[in-house]
Design brief:
The chain has 258 residues and is mainly beta. 11% of the residues lie in helices and 39% in strands. The strands form five sheets. A seven-stranded mixed sheet has the order 1-12-11-17-14-13-19. Strands 4-10-9-8 form a four-stranded antiparallel sheet. Strands 3-2-18 form a three-stranded antiparallel sheet, with no helix packed on it. It is globular and about 50 Å long. The protein starts with a strand and ends with a strand.
């Protein structure tokens, strides 16, 4: 069975609810429209889903042509306003990288602070799609996640916990990590696969409620133990990738390892 793209997950704001488009356009910064925005505290530190699950159930939509951002809560409540860039800022991503951007003016910081229960600010990354962690593209297989479900003795583990851009099937568990250094064609795009993704406590949160309800890291430790990655040793699941040739990818596309 040839590897197949089964799902795509994106969000305009890092740490918010994931949408599942049928296709995306890939450029050097990953999927166009994905993670253009992020939330930071008043000290310039990233507020990710690792730090709070308050935004996990909020869906974001950004209309780039009109500059209107819309947030929809699980209960249907909506917040909507135009995005206006104000002062420039630099946001620290766990000391791994810094992202330049602009604080978004208007009501957004006040609204998000109320949701988070702490002072935060909405930031638009200076470079579109700049809100990614390490690499612009991430890949995980359903088989890798199914192996965790088996270890947990549960019917399934929600693959959204891992917040990966490309979700694939038709491979052996963790085979995607073995492609490191190779090119992979999917749709009209070509990726260059990189190292494995070290997982963090973000994966322990329920994708809808944001509550911690699964000891995901313990499952990975039980199944695989600590394994090397580009940062040292960690609890790995899935793989990073970069875009070699931009293009459009769609659910159902086959992946060819070149």
């Amino acid at each position: 069975m040839q590897p197949t793209l089964t799902q795509l997950f994106t969000t305009p704001i890092k740490g918010f609810a994931l949408s599942a488009p049928s296709s995306v356009t890939l450029d050097k910064n990953g999927a166009v429209g994905d993670r253009d925005f992020l939330v930071a505290d008043d000290g310039g530190e990233l507020i990710s889903i690792t730090r709070t699950g308050a935004f996990a159930g909020w869906h974001a939509q950004f209309a780039a042509d009109s500059g209107v951002l819309t947030l929809t809560a699980p209960d249907g409540r909506m917040l909507e306003d135009r995005v206006v860039d104000e002062q420039s800022t630099v946001i620290n991503f766990w000391d791994e990288r810094s992202v330049q951007g602009h604080v978004v003016g208007g009501s957004w910081s006040a609204w998000l602070s109320e949701i988070a229960g702490r002072p935060v600010q909405l930031v638009r990354a200076q470079e579109p799609g700049g809100g990614y962690d390490v690499a612009a593209v991430t890949v995980v297989s359903e088989e890798s996640v199914a192996e965790l479900a088996k270890a947990a003795d549960v019917p399934s583990v929600d693959i959204r916990r891992f917040r990966m851009l490309l979700n694939i099937s038709g491979v052996l568990p963790h085979e995607e990590e073995a492609w490191s250094g190779r090119r992979v064609r999917v749709g009209s795009a070509v990726l260059r696969m990189a190292g494995p993704v070290p997982r963090c406590n973000a994966t322990t949160r329920d994708p809808d409620s944001g509550k911690r309800n699964l000891k995901t890291l313990k499952l990975i430790a039980d199944v695989r133990g600590m394994q090397p990655n580009e940062f040292g040793d960690g609890l790995n699941l899935g793989a990073y990738a970069t875009v070699v040739e931009p293009g459009v990818i769609s659910v159902g596309d086959l992946l060819t390892v070149l």
